[in-house]
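re: ur question from earlier - yeah i can do the single chain one, its not a big deal. heres the input i used so u can compare w yours
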Amino acid sequence: MLTLETVRYEQDEFVLSADWSLAPEARVAVIGPSGAGKSTLLSLIGGFITPQSGRLLWDGQDITKNTPSARPVASLFQEGNLFPHLSVYENAALGVNVSLRLSAAEKARVFGALDRVGLAGFEARRPAQLSGGQASRAALARALCQDKPLLLLDEPFAALGPALRHEMLDLVGEIARENKRAVLMVSHEPRDAKHFADAVIVVADGVAQTPQGTATLFADPPKALRDYLGRH
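and the output i got, formated as tokens:
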């Protein structure tokens, strides 16, 4: 379980605070206006930035100062960050070992991840030879190869059309359930939150609010969410 214990991050005039826990295997959407701190929240959890105060805990263990690789977290960003000079297989294998020196069991894990996301037979292709949806699947396979219990999604499917985006979210949900992973997903689309998430974190006015049930939240949204939804 992930806990943010009175976490506070400040940079120039920007402030973000959070004080809550995620339920095990939760699927949570993070929504709010642009610039409110949604990506900052994921960066704090992923270890890419450090809070000025408070602690991040995983199963009661303090991970506040752990490096990203030492955290129980795999991250998937909007850009996908596929390396153009590497094959699909090599890009996915980076999730296991950045040296790309893999044991037979680790190679099988990479092939299994590519098969799970529908890219069996695409292993030798380069990113330039993939469609947008296929590139998203390759980036997802790399995140899956990290075998971490918490998956952070920072709008990785934003460039895809609604139907394909929902297909990818359904795939993430299926894999998360099968592997008992929690998912924290930033989205600017309320429809995606309703489609995917059991709970929602609203980020507004310097606070990442406590997760609330999706149906309950959208049925009676707080002012910060009403203001945001008014533009969607």
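The chain has two domains: 2-72+148-229, 82-145. not sure if urs matches, ping me
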